[in-house]
Amino acid sequence: MAKFLVQKSGPLSGEVTISGSKNAVLPILAATLLTKEECVIKDVPALRDVDVMCRLLNSLGAEVDLDFDSNTVKVKASSELNSEAPYDLVKMMRASILVLGALLIRQGHALIHLPGGCAIGERPIELHLKGLRALGATIDEKLLSHGIVDARADKLVGSDIYLDFPSVGATEVIMMAASLAEGTTVIENAAQEPEIVDLATFLNKMGARIKGAGTDTVKIEGVSEFKGVSHHVIPDRIEAGTFMVAAAITGGQVLIKNMVPNHLKAVIAKLRECGIEITMEDDGVVVKGNPETLVSTDIKTLPYPGFPTDMQSPFMALLTIAKGPSVVIETVFENRFMHVGEFNRMGANIKTEGKAAIIPGNKQLQGAQVVATDLRAGAAVVLAGLVAEGTTEVSQIYHIDRGYENFTEKLRSLGANIMRIEE
Ligand code: EPZ
Fold it and tell me: Of 202, 262, 271, 352, most Cβ neighbours within 10 A?
């Protein structure tokens, strides 16, 4: 198993270019099943999850040409597809559920074994299924009780759908299915993340008629067929936020290129509350930290445009050394404090109570042996290792490989003292 060795590092400096968004490219790849023509996706990040999604598309019968060297994927789902997603791939990545809507509308049938819960929560999909039932799908209830989604639909007809929670995945699955359904679908209380907008942009290029993506009400007028298109994926806002915190926590100055500041308003606002200088330049965003003026703030994660849950653990690394106490409230996932135990091994002395974590701050962290408990928590303990005395050994780093392209190379180019050890 590989691991990272992280040493205390001086202030990071230099520039880093952000890769394409994992959480945008995964639904877009699923959506390529909606046409028999070739789609070309560019700015695809070289990530384990992208590789798994491409293997899944291939196993369903699509021709897939993944070239990480050029960050490009070509998909052509021209032949008859298989309706069943193989469990050995689905168990590697819960985002496999994103093919559900596309498979159903294309084949009239989709069978997907659900992966179990994960470190951050139980990850139910009842809202995805509520939407597909509203469009006319039938779901085998007996199989569902055994964790298997077996959905059938001779045809899908547009409907009004209210999401009890603005689920990103449910919004994406329903958008894909509704885009080729008969009639109009309106999704109320839809997720508003930038990745939803990027998917809608891709679908509209293919011929869909989607309005309101990025707001809480998305209107989809079904059309009869899609054409193949090419598309550049938006930058990864969570990778960008992670590198902003890397600059802040080390008191460095870093130019972050290829990021969209508008996608990170809440994170930028909170970093500024901590005394971090953030300036928008023509070629990117400059983040300047200063240990002397690093003060604490409180965080509450919320669906977009609120503070993103995926930035909760990286930001908490910063709060462990900020002057003054802070409270972090995680409202999106029910169990996303697994990283607290890892920070505490480094001396952070954080206490959790239900959805809240209380961070005393003012700590000089000590290097320790820690694990990556999910992909964002893995990045977070690396950030903490950059300012901890001594060596921090991070294991289970396959989590990090899922979501951060060239993570050690990018950090090392900024002066971080981090090594990857293959055991
Ligand atoms: C997406 O997951 C992202 N993954 C997650 O990023 C991200 O944390 C999450 O959105 C929230 O922003 C991808 O886009 C591939 P949700 P998703 O459905 O779609 C509950 C990362 O680190 N819920 O919005 O699974 C659910 O339990 C990953 O890149 C229901 O209750 O998120 C959770 O508590 C981690 N019922 C909350 O909603 C449902 O039917 C958010 O889930 C669906 C969801």
Answer: 202
Q: Which residue's CA is minimally distant from atom 6 of ligand 1?
A: 310
Handedness of CA 372, 330, 275, 258 (dihedral sign): positive
Q: Is residue 19 within 8 Å of residue 236, measured between CB atoms? A: yes
Residue 186, helix vs strand vs coil = strand
Residue 331, exposed/middle/buried by CB under 10 A (0-12, 13-18, 19+)? Answer: middle
* Second-level CATH architecture of 22-232: Alpha-beta prism (3.65)
Q: How far is the CA of 118 from the centre of ligand 1 (A)?
A: 11
Q: What is the pLDDT of residue 120?
A: 80
The predicted pLDDT at position 123 comes to 79
**Residue-level pLDDT at 117:** 63
The structural domains of the chain, with segments of one domain joined by +, span: 3-19+235-421, 22-232
Residue 193 Cα: closest atom of ligand 1: 12
Q: Spell out the alpha helix ranges (H) of 155-236.
A: 168-179, 194-206
Reading the block at residue 419, the tokens are: 């090594």
What residues have CB less than 8 Å from 83, skipping those under 6 apart?
103, 107, 109, 110, 111
Dihedral of CA 383/386/392/396: which sign?
Answer: positive
The answer to whether 168 touches 196, Cβ cutoff 8 Å, is: yes
Q: How far is the CA of 415 from the centre of ligand 1 (A)?
A: 33
Residue whose CA is at the smallest distance from ligand 1 atom 7: 310
Which pLDDT band, with edges at 50, 70 and 90, does 2 fall under? very high
Q: What is the mean pLDDT of residues 134-151?
A: 96
Of the candidates 93, 86, 104, which has an alpha carbon nearest to the alpha carbon of residue 33?
104
**3-19+235-421 in CATH: which number?**
3.65.10.10
Coil, helix or strand at residue 267:
helix
The pLDDT tens digits for 33-88 are 999 999 999 999 999 999 999 999 999 999 999 999 999 999 999 989 999 999 99
Q: Answer whether 273's CB lies under 8 Å from 57's CB.
A: no
* Contact residues for 212 (Cβ-Cβ < 8 A; gap 6+): 190, 218, 219
- Sequence-distant (6+) residues with CB within 8 A of 344 are 350
